Amino acid sequence: MSRPSTRPPQWLMCILMLCLSALLVAWLAHPAGPLTIRAMPEVPTPTAAPTPAPAPSPTPEPAPVPDYSLPVPAGEAVAAEWFDDAVFIGDSRTDGLHLFSGVSAKAVFLESTGLTVYEVMEGKEVIRLGREKVSVLDALAQNTCGKVYISLGVNELGYYDPDDFARVYGTLIDAVRECQPNARLYIQSIIPVNTAKCKANDVPYYVTNEGIASYNEALSALCAEKEVWRVDVDRAFADDTGEVPAGLSADGVHFKKEGYALWLDYLATHTGT
Prior knowledge:
The chain is an alpha/beta fold. The protein has a domain of 189 residues: SGNH hydrolase (Rossmann fold). Helices cover 36% and strands 11% of the residues. The strands form 2 sheets. It has a 5-stranded parallel sheet, with helices on both faces. It has a two-stranded antiparallel sheet with strand order 3-4. β5, α5 and β6 form a beta-alpha-beta unit. α5 crosses α7. The longest helix has 20 residues. It is rod-shaped.
């Protein structure tokens, strides 16, 4: 038997050809447009955050100008080392401060019994350095110090009026500043006396608390004029009557050990710092 034919009928082939022809004509009539490549969306470049302007530095407030018409106010006590670079100029009272107050052993004392501001400015040689004696100012020039404390005035009583005393004292202030320009200068008021003990110990009659008050008033005006620290040490000693209590006084003019310790304590709490 002969196999049946697997070829599609001729009519089907004709239909397929017509369909393909129609598709070809349609494609030629409407060709596809050119291939469009979309650009990637542009990513914005990140903008750096603006650097904040530095805050303006605060203008430092000027240090308050001390009112030199007033005494140094009370404050916290400084350490004992405060007096390590101090020089003390004075008479026999200052000698007692040196010996009995417990002040730093590094402090320098330029003192002499009976010393006056006039003798200092006259260049009297009263300070022993080694085998020789020199003046107070010459001895001061051989030290580099941070503070200078001056206590003079008792031995001038009865000889010089307050105005002349202040005049010569002013020349001493100028000389010390020239000699030690970087040092803090403290002028100490004159401590009063105990009248009864002065009489009992034959202290000259002209050593009075009235005279001391006049000198202190002149020193107060001088310190304001010269713009220098004034330490009113007399306030640590004077009682309600203006006298040094008998319990602190040795002979009317000088003090017992407790008195010199009180003096040093007052200096330690009145530095202006």
